[in-house]
Amino acid sequence: MSTDTLRDRLESLGAPRRHVDAARQPVMLATLVDQPFSGREWLFEIKYDGVRVLAERAGKRVRLYGRSGQDFTGRYPEIVEALAALPVARFVLDGEVVAFDEHGRSSFQRLQGRMGLSQAGDVAVGRRQVPVSAAFFDCLELDGYDLRDVPLRERKQLLELLIPRGHGVLAYSAHVEERGEEFFHACDARHLEGIIAKKADGPYRSGRSRDWLKIKCQRRQEFVIGGYTDPQGGRSYFGALHLGVYEGERLVYVSKVGTGFDAKSLKRIWDRLKPLERARSPFDVGTPTGRGHHWVEPRLVAEVRFTEWTDDGGLRHPAFLGLRDDKRPQDCKREVAMPTGQAARTPQTKNDAPGRVKITRADKVFWPEDGYTKGDLVAYYETIAPLMLPYLKDRPLVLVRYPDGIAGKSFFQKDTPDFVPDWVRTVRIRSTTPPRDIDYVVADDVETLRYLANLGTIPIHLWASRAGSLDRPDWAVLDLDPKGAPFTHVVRIAQTVRGILDEIGVPSYVKTSGKTGLHVLVGLGARYSYEEARAFAEIIATMAVSREPKIATVARPLHERGGKVYVDFGQNGPGQTIVAPFAVRPLPGAPVSCPLRWDEVTARLDPKRFTMKTVPRRFSEMKDPMAPVLGAGFDLERALRRISKKREEERL
């Protein structure tokens, strides 16, 4: 490969110079459909039977991460060595670790001999006995360029320049165009697992997507192991494994599997089962009765092949394929194939009724004093979507739902409920308090906004960072919270903050909170960490308070504020959210968090006049003054030097 050719191609794309953190980048997932299809806008690839990895190189350092962020680097040293030999020093690639059988097919059962090895000595032996390869099918970052918004066809062309076909341990995953049905039948004849259909012009988006569709030649999926039966017929260790899937938070019994084991796999599974033994069944529904059953904590995941689901929810002719250490038990849910015609159709236009979210009880009053209905809320979000969606794109959202309007009960919702349809995009993020995975909703399109409003979502809160760069926020924010102080003081502090930022050459933007405060934001362009964003915000907050000590404070406890405006810099952290620009608040009058021009931030400013009814008219006549906050950001190091110089001058 000519690196000059590759770099010329990269420069011509106009992609941003931005690093992708593979350890925090949730992978893009395909939606299961029931039949193969063909189409000019689609590419078709082999569905590999292996372990999904994101491969990251930063200089001499190479890491392999599993789909849930596990570090698999030490397990596959031959892949790490081959990646380190490529002629580009920075990249993030998406692919699959595979072990090929004697027929040249990827074999998950053969890969079992490598998947569980972590000790260096065991890995060295396994490397000789079960060699592995990596088939890469996507390229998220290359030579410092973030390619996630580049069309797939162009990403694959760049990937092929990096990893030509026939590269040994590393393989470029080739594709065919248009002829999906013919390709599927060829793969079926070779007894492959299936194929993946991908939108040729689609971006890379974390989470489940209908831009990627999977069509399986044989039925198989992951199940939770909840127990086992006594051995029979001379078999050692156990006879069969009890399997289940999650329906919401309930573990539902499905079937047992007693075939597909050899002596090695029996011993390997037994060694994993014994420490997990428990007295009672872990299944919430359908536990088998009688003798000979033993139960374990539901922590192991098995991949099982079967011919079909039975009418009572069981499996016909199940066969064990292997353990899946890269899959979480909570992710094991019954896979139901979407009709291909529904999943693969071209996105419908605004006027196509079958593609639209059906709004239920649109006439239900949500604002009793004003008479505004759920239908009014849906219509507002649909109207404002062109302005609001750029802020929401790729960003984890926290919803506040009011199913009976602002006078009824409400609740925050981070985790996406099970009933949300497959086309609603989600992104999985690991929470540390308590430790669990959360599937956040992402709203990239107007139909998702309509769907959320139909659920009774009034305010929408968003992260400052996007999926794929979760540790690098797009902005830092100061939340000016009066809590009893006059609003004129809020205005004065906002202008003081603006003055400080102007002095150090940092552009700033302002919006109403939709309540009684203001938010002042500076764009960071995903160039810095949350720690750096918070530290910068704290410096600016402290400087503002030093200039206006009689009316401003950084004291968080309400009783310590003394009637002053609280300059809150604490909203700059992973998982911290602010109300989205243009989001409605659940208050009388239906006020909106509204972007402002700085010349509007005066003593005459009245946040209550920016409402669900007035904001669409306002922005039909003006551009969004806050839009540049989503740009490239400012040079933080230069700004800090200017602050240091200014403080030194003030001391003199």
Keywords:
652 residues, alpha+beta, 14 helices, OB fold (Dihydrolipoamide Acetyltransferase, E2P), D-amino Acid Aminotransferase, Chain A, domain 1
Give a verbal description of the structure.
The chain is α+β, with helices and mostly antiparallel strands. The protein has 4 domains: about 5-205, 2-Layer Sandwich (D-amino Acid Aminotransferase, Chain A, domain 1); about 220-330, Nucleic acid-binding proteins (OB fold (Dihydrolipoamide Acetyltransferase, E2P), Beta Barrel); about 365-460, no CATH class; about 475-580 and about 585-620 and about 635-645, DNA primase, PRIM domain (Alpha-Beta Complex). Helices cover about 25% and strands about 30% of the residues. The protein has 14 helices and 33 strands. The strands form 8 sheets. Strands 3, 4, 5, 6, 7 and 8 form a 6-stranded mixed β-sheet that branches. Strands 12, 13, 14, 15, 16 and 19 form a 6-stranded antiparallel β-sheet that branches. A 6-stranded mixed β-sheet has the order 30-31-27-29-28-33. A hairpin with a 5-residue loop joins strand 17 and strand 18. Helix 9 (about 375-390) crosses helix 10 (about 445-455) and helix 11 (about 485-505) packs across helix 12 (about 530-545). The chain is globular, with a radius of gyration of 28 Å. About 40% of the residues are buried. Residues about 345-355 have low confidence and may be disordered.
